[in-house]
Design a protein that fits this description.
31% of the residues lie in helices and 23% in strands. The protein has nine helices and 20 strands. It folds into three domains: 106 residues, Uridine Diphospho-n-acetylenolpyruvylglucosamine Reductase, domain 2 (2-Layer Sandwich); 106 residues, Uridine Diphospho-n-acetylenolpyruvylglucosamine Reductase, domain 3 (2-Layer Sandwich); 70 residues, UDP-N-acetylenolpyruvoylglucosamine reductase, C-terminal domain (Uridine Diphospho-n-acetylenolpyruvylglucosamine Reductase, domain 1). The C terminus is likely disordered. The chain is globular and about 55 Å long. The relative contact order is 0.14. By secondary structure, the protein is α+β, with helices and mostly antiparallel strands. The protein binds uridine-diphosphate-2(N-acetylglucosaminyl) butyric acid. The site of uridine-diphosphate-2(N-acetylglucosaminyl) butyric acid (EPU) has 16 residues, from α7.
């Protein structure tokens, strides 16, 4: 595309966003930076940030953006995303404000995508509902957890999903959980699909035992993972089906504390890359990650797969043809 063509596309898009957002009552902000929107605290500006507040609003705005061929991505808590330092020329649909309330009914709970996962785990434990207590320390939204089938300490969210609500043609549609493939830190949801919420089916158990299991997971997490640090959780997946821990292996390679600019391999858990200082860049984290992958390949013959989402600055529609694993959007 020539520069003139890009400028025309951008001004048509901006006019569309300026018309659609107020009509649907959705807050729209320009020029927000990934450095303030993600837990790694790095990454460049994004053209537009849209903040719907209800599932219906989110479905409508996604439908309108599609109808106007406007490229968009979805962000939840931003706790599993490494976004490039360059300016991102697309619309970011933040689900953070689509929180609503968690509606409990017997063993079921219906919850919106922007609801905090740790909060939901506490809500469920208080009601004596088991099935997600291992997930209590994951600092993400319910939507993000669903998108990637978040898991920890023996629990995975996919195991308890009865139905998922997704945006279809501008409306809220319900999909049975059994129609979704729930793999290790990966699902069959596709780019361009917006998750709005879910109904989970939990099971009654003794509240004291649930709380004890939650506390145990919390203690383990505190003892073995960095907290309060600027991280995106585990950076790489464990080698599938091997029972191996990538963190343990990086540790054994002597890489704890390895540094590249403002990015450091956590001295607490070697599968965490943390950023430090004002000048930290996404490029630092990426260079450090690639150094780990190179050494891992040489020393173990294993190709490490990213567990965090790597977001390039190009608009998603322009990179769709080569979208692989890493192009899945964090919600
Ligand atoms: N270990 C080390 N050094 C390290 C890290 C780990 O020796 O630097 C050892 C531990 O002492 C333990 C073993 O390796 O004996 C396994 O460690 P851990 O229990 O931390 O498990 P993990 O396989 O490294 C996985 C998930 C975590 C999840 C924990 C607990 C992945 C990539 N990681 O870590 O998930 O919290 O199990 O269930 O699957 C995440 O998804 O972002 C994440 C952090």
């Amino acid at each position: 595309m020539s520069e003139t063509q890009i400028l025309t596309v951008v001004s048509t898009r901006d006019a569309a966003v300026r018309e659609i957002a107020p009509r649907l009552g959705v807050r729209a902000e320009e020029g927000r930076r990934f450095a303030e929107l993600t837990s790694l605290r790095v990454g460049g500006a994004v053209d537009w940030l849209l903040l719907p507040e209800t599932e219906e609003q989110a479905a409508s705005i996604a439908g309108e953006l599609d109808a106007h061929a406007v490229a968009w991505r979805v962000l939840g808590a931003g706790s599993n995303v490494l976004a490039d330092d360059a300016d991102h020329h697309y619309v970011l649909l933040s689900m953070r404000e689509v929180k609503g309330v968690a509606r409990f009914d017997g063993e079921r709970v219906s919850v919106s995508a922007g609801y905090s996962l740790p909060r939901l785990c506490v809500d469920a434990a208080r009601r004596g509902l088991s099935g997600i207590e291992g997930l209590g320390g994951i600092p993400g939204t319910v939507g993000g957890a669903l998108w990637m089938n978040a898991g920890a300490y023996g629990d995975e969210i996919g195991q308890v999903v009865e139905t998922v609500r997704v945006a279809r043609g501008g409306r809220v549609a319900e999909v049975p959980g059994t129609d979704v493939r729930w793999d290790y830190r990966h699902t069959s949801f596709r780019d361009g699909e917006l998750l709005l919420g879910a109904t989970l089916r939990l099971r009654h158990d003794d509240p004291d035992q649930i709380k004890a299991r939650m506390e145990e997971a919390k203690q383990k997490r505190f003892a073995t993972q960095p907290h309060g640090a600027r991280s995106a959780g585990c950076f790489f997946k464990n080698p599938p089906g091997s029972g191996l821990s990538t963190g343990k292996m990086i540790d054994e390679m002597g890489m704890k504390g390895a540094q590249h600019g403002g990015a450091v391999v956590s001295p607490v858990h070697a599968n965490f890359i943390v950023t430090e200082g004002e000048g930290a860049q996404a490029a630092d984290a990426l260079a450090l990650a690639e150094e780990i992958r190179d050494r891992f390949r040489r020393e173990h013959g294993i190709e490490l797969e990213y567990e965090v989402e790597l977001w390039g600055a190009a608009a998603p529609s322009l990179i769709e043809s080569d979208a692989g694993e890493g192009a899945n959007d964090e919600q």
